[in-house]
Amino acid sequence: MNASQRTLRSLAVAAALVVLPTALAGCSATQTGGGGSTSGSGGDETLKIGLVTKTDSNPYFVSMRAAAQEAADAAGAELIAKAGTADGDNDSQVAAVENLIASGVQAILITANDSKAIVPTLKAAQDRGIFVAALDTPTEGNEGVDATWATDNTLAGEQQGAYVKAALGSTPPVVAMLDLQPGVSVGDQRHAGFLTGMGLTDDSPEIAGRQDTNGDQAKGQTAMENLLQKNPGINAVYTINEPAAIGAWTALNNAGKAGSTVVGSIDGGCTGVQAVRDGKIAATVMQFPGKMAEEGVKAAVAFAEDGTKPEVPATGFIDTGVQLITDEPLGGLEAKDTAWGLENCWGGES
Q1: Are 200 and 206 contacting, i.e. CB atoms less than 8 angstroms apart?
Q2: What is the distance between the alpha carbons of residues 46 and 305, in angstroms, rounded to a whole number?
């Protein structure tokens, strides 16, 4: 091979080395640029969305997680689901959020166990450019979140109260209040809404007593037993949720007072709707946790794509709706029957 031939060969090899990395890069982009990639998360990376619920056992949050998973799958995103160890446990949720931040999520959806204590941790996530949304339970002052999807719990309480009032008719109310626990916004709003629907206040003499139940069936039964001992004339019961309502009905039934006492509730779980059908609860107000999760995931995807954040109404949250469920509509209140309720309830078949 002469000098001229050697020079031409060297130039050809150099040109090939320049072209090869470009070709390989184009091949890599083709292989990883399919389903599951988002432009907002680096183009080639799968969008990671964290979900932190209050617990992983309550059917309400189980249904929320299932809806979030379905929405994430449809968007080609990865859902990383975590939960608190118990309702009210903030420390476990703080740890869950910190773990999600470390894992590189682009969005975090959370149902806060403590609306105030979780805020600094959520702000730390926002400082890293992570989209944060509250589901079901607003944070205090809506701090630490970019949006909130929730039930209008005041309205839900008003509907429960209005129905109980209509069911009593001309009978003077003697009301037992089975609350959640102090300082939780959901419980405070439902409690206040119920009183508004009844046309009462906390100071009204018609209030026979109140006890906290933590939304638990066994504690609801104990609370109702205690209140009946103090005032056997109770004829109306406010309950924070359906487990507490079923516990209250058990105590009333054991005391021979179930047939003469109106029990109202809020939730829309399949077990609760069945309790309405069975006559244990007079009416319940259904909420829609699946919709909260679906909308939260959609917003996370939109944020990852182009930084879009949802518009939040002046109320501070995006309302996902409520629906009164009863087989005996009263007082001109718009209601759906239990057949509809069992078709649209959450938490599996009753």
Answers
A1: yes
A2: 12
Cα pseudo-dihedral 4, 10, 15, 19, rounded to 10: 150
pLDDT of residue 86: 86
Q: What is the CA radius of gyration of the chain?
A: 27
Nearest Cα to Cα of residue 186 among 145, 153, 148, 219 = 153
- Are 155 and 168 a contacting pair, CB within 8 Å? no
Strands 78-83 and 107-110: unpaired
Give per-residue pLDDT as tens, 136-147. Answer: 999 999 999 999
Q: Which domains does the chain have, with CATH numbers?
A: 39-151+289-319 (3.40.50.2300), 153-286+322-344 (3.40.50.2300)
pLDDT in tens, 175-194: 999 999 887 788 999 999 99
pLDDT of residue 23 exceeding 60: no
